[in-house]
């Protein structure tokens, strides 16, 4: 079990997000070590967590940013990132967001459809600018992950199908205000096996060979992110297998001379450094169940309700007590407001602190004010 400064928690209003900055720094150092290659460029997917304190730490480490909205572009710039360090993705970029990105000199647009390409060209022309773009391709690879976070299949709202690529590339090469920088791929999220990434390498190699024969070369290949984490045992695997991840691309992707390889990692960067800390309000004895009712709810961490995801739950007030079964539930007026059923936990009492682990990604950033609740605060800790 991770060590938490319980005595300091007693003075804080719950629920709140606890961030272990020492672990974040170790994770960033491991990314830097294992991605050490003059061709590699690692971008942090800001959608995972846009807490300013987290962003500033990541910016200081030298990573770039993957943004999917104008708001994320502004958050990145506020944290010290420069425009050229930002790649901008998303299927529904508004005209205002495209102007914002162009005026801030974003390094590349990841273009997801032909209509979007037309609008970027039109707006860039009106501003007297030229936009660098990468075409997001659906490689039709099943990443064997949750249907809500699978993004690389053929019929998906994201990206361009392979059979549409020739016509779109031909069009791109005719546009005066568009520079075709490269190709972009993203096959899904929370991928815990290397095989889907190897399949992606094979697909990219084939696509590149085809276009080399046609006389078209790409400066950049962007393979997205998707590397998963260990939600079940975060203490055993606090840092994901970046070594194996980067090695898969280093050994299996045939890059051209001078070609850059871009990555967009989010969950694997920040998930394990964050926990949602909540206080027990009541222990309710039912006929066949025992409920631990806590002050955090699906408004603070929606993943269990949205994806049926499970975060490891720990009683950090009484970690060594006799264990009992509990349904750990929140106060929201929805039956889906449940963090875990039949959890085997040390005896829980009113006032105990529970930690929902591995919540640094898609936790605080997805919080809402449903039921007119206050957004959770954040607490940073450094050993």
Automatic annotation (TrEMBL):
CDD domains per record: PLPDE_III_DapDC
Residues annotated as domain Orn/DAP/Arg decarboxylase 2 C-terminal: 17-360
InterPro entries: Ala_racemase/Decarboxylase_C, DAP_deCOOHase_LysA, De-COase2_C, De-COase2_N, De-COase2_pyr-phos_BS, Orn/DAP/Arg_de-COase, PLP-binding_barrel
Positions contributing to pyridoxal 5'-phosphate binding: 226, 264-267, 362
Pathway named in the protein's UniProt entry: Amino-acid biosynthesis; L-lysine biosynthesis via DAP pathway; L-lysine from DL-2,6-diaminopimelate: step 1/1
Entry keywords, A to Z: Amino-acid biosynthesis, Decarboxylase, Lyase, Lysine biosynthesis, Pyridoxal phosphate
Orn/DAP/Arg decarboxylase 2 N-terminal domain mapped to chain residues: 39-271
Entry cofactors: pyridoxal 5'-phosphate
Pfam short name (any one): Orn_Arg_deC_N
Coiled-coil residues: none
Stated name of the protein: Diaminopimelate decarboxylase
Record gene name: lysA
